[in-house]
Amino acid sequence: MSALLEIKDLHLGFKTLTGQVDVLHGIDIDIATGEKVALVGESGSGKSVTARIVLGLLQETRTARIKGTVQFAGQDINAMSARERAALRGTELSMIFQDPTSSLNPMFTIANQFTEVLRRREPKLSKAASQARATTLLDEVAIPDPARVLGSYPFQLSGGMNQRVMIAMALANKPQLLLADEPGTALDVSVQAQTLTLMRDLVEQNGTSVLFISHNLGVVREFADRVYVIYRGNIVEDGPTEVLFANPQHAYTRALMSAVPRITGVGLPEVPELSDTFLAPRIRHGYAS
Amino acid sequence: MIRTLRILAANPLSLLGLVLVCLITLAAIFAPWIAPFPTHNGAVVDFLNNNRAPSARNWMGTDLVGRDIFSRILFAYQISLTLGVVVLAIAVPIGTMIGLLAGYIGGWLEMILMRIVDVFLSIPPLVLAIAMMGVLEPTLTNAMLAVTAMWWPWYARLVYSIARGEREEGYVLAAEVIGASAGHIAFREILPNCLPAIITKMTLDMGFVIIIASSLSFLGLGVQPPTADLGSMVAEGARYLPDSWWLTVFPGLAILIAVFGFNLLGDGLRDVLGVDE
Lengths: 289, 277
Known about the structure:
The structure holds two protein chains of two kinds.
Chain A (H helix, E strand, L loop, with lengths): L2 E14 L2 E14 L3 E5 L6 H9 L8 E9 L2 E2 L5 H7 L4 E4 L13 H12 L5 H14 L5 H5 L8 H14 L4 E5 L7 H18 L2 E6 L2 H7 L2 E6 L2 E7 H6 L4 H8 L24 E2 L5
Parallel strand pairs in A: 3-8, 3-9, 6-7, 7-8, 10-11
Antiparallel strand pairs in A: 1-2, 1-4, 4-5, 9-10
Helix pairs in contact in A: 3-4, 3-6, 4-6, 6-7
Chain B lengths: L1 H9 L1 H18 L1 H4 L34 H37 L1 H16 L2 H11 L4 H28 L2 H8 L4 H37 L11 H9 L7 H28 L4
Helix pairs in contact in B: 2-4, 2-11, 4-5, 4-7, 4-9, 4-11, 5-7, 6-7, 7-9, 8-9, 9-10, 9-11, 10-11
């Protein structure tokens, strides 16, 4: 398996009036073709900015200072021009967000928004052809009445429906890499589980690689092949999902896992904001399997 | 569209506004055919019938040179509505464009554009228009220019505030993520979400533009005689109050009805389109 995405020694800082605030301190992540990789960490650990760098969005922010390489399909995204990066987005790279309903423009029907997505790949696609394609795509995400959904506005659909529409749209152009930034966090748990299963099946079918960003360890365990744990801009532990969950080595990973609320209600442990043990060096689990 | 109208018509006040606006518009368009004395729009003198109280022949009386006031009001509506439409047709696109640029792109552009807008907004509107008319010749075109100059900043500020909010919405980020250009995001994603507010404000503003334009011509700075204009008709008759009350009361009422109609319609539209103030 060759690496589709290879992030090497990625540093990110933001220039402020008083100096530079460092957010990422040299992280390495690689994702093979067709692999589902999760990036787990608490709020503010640097998960979402990593996704934004891969998408090439932060490179256009003037206060951002980025060092290191982000190789995508053999090209360094950091070294590209803004135009080249824009060309990758929506075709080879795609993203799903936390709140599906707000990710869709309330002024346009689903059909309308689908057409725009599909025209990223094929600018001359006719309305009728895009309708047909959209219908098939919505069918694939198990939407019962695609024609009705296509004619609806986002606010007329439930959150779960919108999430499926988002998944269908994100995969419509058969991207090589899908970034999922805490997808469905705004949805209730059962709907979230449903849509995640759906998403997993679809990306496996299409052979799409996924960078799955989450703080929900339960979801990550179900979804990902491999997990990276990020803490304060450093990768602290990584490895295949089963190995890492069976035998977490790093103090922070353990703290994170103990902080998952149990349905049996044994209470939540105190996780300190900062602990020396959390700053221990990175632990890499073997990739023997 | 049909649905919007139906909801609008369900509220009696909005319906009244809609009816008034339609009546005024029709009256203005068909003025040359409806008016009992179509020639009285211009320089006509009929001293045999001057300054007559309302009668069966002249429903609203005649003015100092014997022209039929009812006919003149119909023609004055033409001027008022044209002025309103032209002013908004120029001010709204300019203001919207500036507001969108400042709101979506932000940064230095936002600073510069919005400070310019603030400067315009800090001058009392009528004072700005009077100053402009004082420098320019008092004609209809210049009146439009002056009113436009004071009107666009309001749209810039309105659109700016909405665009600022929409910029943070998920769908804007989603559009950026699929590689949409800044132009596409500004005009195809954000602008449609500003439209309900813009349309509502335009309807409300028609009334205010009519008032401002009438104020200008009341002061002798707008449309010049002998062309009929509501403001100058009120001004002409004001000296003869209260004896020749019809000279001022009817044109005044005409202004009132127009502004009232547009305001009611605007309020109704605001409710229907779900715009919050």
